[in-house]
Amino acid sequence: MKKRISLLNKPYFSVWCIFHAAVLLVFLCVFLLFQGKKGFDADLFNMIPKSFEDASVRAANDKLTKSSSQNTIILVSHSDFDAAKKTAEEVYRCLSTSGNFDDVSLYADGNNVAEITDFMHRCRWNLLDEETSEKLLSAGADGSGYIEQFAAEALERAFSPFSVFSVDAIETDPFMLSQLHFERYVSLLQKSGMALSVKDGVLASAHEGRWYIMLRCLLSKKGAALANRRNGVAEIHSVCSQLEKDGVRFVFSGTPFHSYESSTQASREITIITTAAMLLVVLLLLYIFRSPKPILASVFSIGVSVCTGLCATLAVFKTMHVMTLVFGTSLIGSCIDYSLHFFTHWAANSGAASGADIRKRLIKPLTMAIVSTTICFAMLLFAPFTLIRQIAVFCTAGLFSSFLTTVCLFPSLPLPEGTRQIPLVRFFEKKSPVLLQPASASGKWSTQKKASLIILLMLFVCSVCFTACFRSNLKIENNLAKLYKMKGRLLADEIEAASVIQYSPAGWFIVSGKSEEELLQHEEILCNALRSQAGFDRLLAASQFVPSAATQKKSQQACALLLQHAEEQFLMLGFDEAETQSLVSSLQSDLEAAAGKFISIENGSVPPFILSAFSSVWIGESDGTFYSAIMPNSTSDKALFEKIGAQYEFVHWINTVSDISSDLDRLTKIMIWFFAVSFVLVFIILKFLYPLRDSLQIISIPLLIVLVTCAVFSCFNIAFEFFSVTGIVLVFGLGLDYIIYTVSGSRSDSQDNALERTAVFLSFVTTVLSFGVLAFSSFRPVHQIGLTVFIGLTVAYLASILYGVLRDEA
């Protein structure tokens, strides 16, 4: 008992405590300093790498994407309009008071119309579009008669029974500018937005015999936390599922629904993978060791490792994507490797008198294993991809924790009494296949060694030959659309929503300017180019609703020309001469008072309802530069849009799917360079620790892994994607462990060789159980990494066996 208690005084235990206490302390400090800014992230787009665009443009685009990623659309469908509206109102009642939403909109009430008409009348001198202003100014210069035509059209509006403006407004607006602006506003909404119209106070559309009523929900920060079970999307599903009956059908559209689906799927896979892998590992260890101590100790090591990885990741990044946990489950197989090597000797090494002897025997290979693995994960820290960096931190901290637990705590466990043996060790000593047995005394090049060498050479040669034969299939190709595939109801809903609302922008322009005024002018230049070069005007832009000051000034000048004909216009409207003189004088005073005063978005002079029409594309100021987006209603000719955008240095065409796919291609190439750097660093370290022959044997393993993986991928026409190359980098570190343990064993001690082969076999099986299950994931990134690691680990294990035979001495 005293010997066990003396553990507290051992320096190894102190090292273990210092490391874990440091991680915990840093985590607690971050927890206290960043309350409310930490936790788990389940946003689908946050697991995608950031664009290689200019940092300021990327920040503006990220702001736009974040805003759009919180918007959801619910279409309430029924063959009867009243039934659809009644259900929509019930959904609105349930969601509008929830803290999961910043805004829930259903009604287009009369107050909004009054707000709009009041704004149009008050700012009537400033809102003529540039084309109309140009025509009026040109007519004033050349007398073309357009002013008279404009005045005649105003009279038609004035006497129209469909005017939304009061007749009293004619006294202050004889040219019906307010009516003209209102009609243009409605037209812009129809061109830039969705194919719905106001019916009985709500936005609705009739499609294929059914009515669709739209609710728009803007998730709050709380509601957008999709990793939380009580998030906004979950509440929408909960409310709507109870009302989806008696012919009512709901159609859901928006990024949050897909993020929620992907995170929910990931959570299910985490549970299945973790449970299945842990159960199989426990059963395997129970069968092998026939004792609960190794199992309990290994589970303790895994638990501490996962907690350490979790704390370290949250301490560094403050938030962690749920996909990091999916990949982090690989620790179940990887962390236990160190435990398995220790407990294999603990249970069957008759030459070890204590745990300290076992540590002495294993310290070199365990250290080299953790160093090589850490180097590979450290390379991932330089990837410009937050998810990969999180995985690197999570796994590095977890693996190092497992290493410390193995070398610092496990040696204090008393060795089992009586005969120490494991049935599997006897299998590797006596009943294993011929290649697993020590070479016979027939000489250096025994049959076993010749066969091993031939198989190794065949692996290298066949891999090269197959890769050469199918080299046309060997390519780097990333497609964002393949990373997440819509299916089931979500796919059907998006198709139905697209046919109803007819709004499907697949790209947008990011426009910049040094000030709000310059930005709006740049917008107007681009909009004019889109109309003239592409014949396209179905788009959403802030400058359509709030023109630049230059355009507003031109509008005021055009209105001044109109006032020269105001007297005639009043007479045509039925006013007598006395009234006309007074009204004309009042108009001129009003225009003079408005001169030099312009509508501005940033100073808050735009009414909220009108601002809401384009707030989704107004990004605003970021790092001293103003940004906005111009959003085409549809993207029929992406190449032409990209060409037009390239004409202006202040415009950046954003095509998310294409851009991120290209960025993933670039990241894939960066990961290949990381692999090459890791390869060189590990070889340099090996040269200091092992003889040249052993170093070459060890470093040939990753080369063989790459060759076999290339052969398999080219034969089955599988393109190398970012996540598969990441898997190769990961398996580089994990696969080296097998050959390191093999070359670290004794060449002449048959029991030592059998123990190492047993431990390596158990490590291989447990790691494959972890990563092999990932290969069956329906989520492509997880599947790609799991498949690549499974292939690599299998190659690494087979090669370690063959090299082990070549090392055996007669």
Notes on the protein architecture:
- There is one protein chain.
- Helix content is 64%, strand content 8%.
- With 810 residues, the chain is α+β, with helices and mostly antiparallel strands.
- The chain has a domain at 430-489 and 656-810: Multidrug efflux transporter AcrB transmembrane domain (Multidrug efflux transporter AcrB transmembrane fold, Up-down Bundle).
- Strands 2, 3, 4, 5, 6 and 7 form a six-stranded antiparallel sheet that branches.
- A hairpin with a 2-residue loop joins strand 5 (202-207) and strand 6 (210-219).
- Helix 29 (722-744) packs parallel to helix 31.
- It is elongated and about 120 Å long.
Q: What is the CATH top level name of the domain at 430-489 and 656-810? A: Mainly Alpha
What's the mean pLDDT score?
81
Low-confidence stretches: 1-9, 431-443
% residues in beta strands: 5-15%
**Gross CATH architecture of the domain at 430-489 and 656-810:** Up-down Bundle
Structural class by helix and strand composition:
alpha+beta
Total of helices: 31
> Biggest β-sheet, characterized?
6 strands, antiparallel
Radius of gyration over all CA atoms, rounded: 35 Å
**Tally of DSSP β-strands:** 13
* Estimated helix fraction: 55-70%
Here the CATH topology of the domain at 430-489 and 656-810 equals Multidrug efflux transporter AcrB transmembrane fold
Q: Distance between the terminal alpha carbons, to the nearest Å?
A: 45 Å
CATH superfamily of the domain at 430-489 and 656-810: Multidrug efflux transporter AcrB transmembrane domain
Global geometry: elongated
